[in-house]
Write a structure and sequence with these properties.
The chain is α/β, with parallel strands linked by helices. Helix content is 32%, strand content 24%. It is globular. The structure holds iron/sulfur cluster.
């Protein structure tokens, strides 16, 4: 096994709350740090935590604090115990953050071992195409963001997203983009065109922004209007909110 260790925020079992695999149970490995600072981020902060919160029993929220960094041996021991005691409850391992691809060197060594236990699902902001190219054969699912200026605050990520999607198409990929009442028609048209230029059958998830009070920041009519724009380019356009937030899940 790899002797590389990673600075992590938390490890726990929960349901996937976003995108087309919504509701499936996953093991979440949350890595610290991100290269972006999106306006709507629900996991802000780049300071490395002194310890990682590790759930002892899957889904029971009985966390213990383990000093960082965390070894892959520790994670594998946890996975094997969970798989032995609760067989078949977990669909896959979600690599989340932050931005997991910042841990490229570590993931290159860890993923063969982790993938021997469960399929690998990457949640990413869709920018580091070089890192993705080095890991693509070790991944099974890719949940890739396209950041819109109206909701993320970033204006010039289109080229990076296109290069990323070009590589992602080799695996089971879908694109997620956060929308709000401020999202303009051209943003969705450009997003859909970008995806269609790679493959018009790649699913696009329009994810209404979650407000502090747990509601969503877009009207029902506007969500449908944006879906209609994207459907002019793509075969699968879905509107799915962050379901884990209103279910009280992590
Ligand atoms: S890419 Fe994700 S983790 Fe990074 S700042 Fe944006 S929302 Fe937060």
């Amino acid at each position: 096994m790899s002797d590389k260790s990673a600075e992590m925020v938390e490890i726990f079992s929960s349901i996937q709350g976003e995108g087309p695999l919504v509701g499936l149970r996953q093991v979440f490995l949350r890595f610290h740090a991100c290269n972006l600072a999106c306006i709507y981020c629900d996991t802000p902060g780049n300071a490395c935590p002194e310890s990682c919160a590790i759930e002892a029993t899957p889904g029971r929220r009985d966390f213990i604090q383990a000093p960082n960094p965390i070894t892959v041996e520790r994670i594998v021991a946890l996975l094997d115990r969970w798989q032995g005691g609760w067989p078949a409850i977990h669909h896959s391992i979600s690599l989340t953050g932050g931005e997991p691809l910042l841990q490229y060197e570590i993931l290159r060594e860890w993923l063969p071992t982790l993938r021997s236990r469960l399929p690998i699902y990457l949640e990413t902001n869709g920018m580091f195409h070089h890192a993705l190219a080095g890991l693509i054969d070790l991944l099974d699912y890719i949940s890739m963001d396209i950041k819109l200026p109206s909701t993320s605050g970033y204006k010039e990520l289109w080229d990076a997203h296109r290069q990323f999607l070009d590589i992602s198409r080799r695996k089971n990929v879908f694109v997620k983009t956060v929308i709000s009442e401020a999202t303009e028609d051209w943003e969705i048209a450009r997003t859909a065109e970008l995806i269609a230029a790679v493959d018009g059958n790649i699913p696009l998830i329009l994810q209404p922004i979650t407000l502090q009070n747990g509601g969503v920041g877009i009207s029902p009519l506007r969500a449908l209007e944006l879906q209609e724009i994207a459907a002019g380019f793509l075969s699968q356009v879905r509107v799915i909110p962050q379901t884990h937030r209103f279910l009280g899940q992590l």
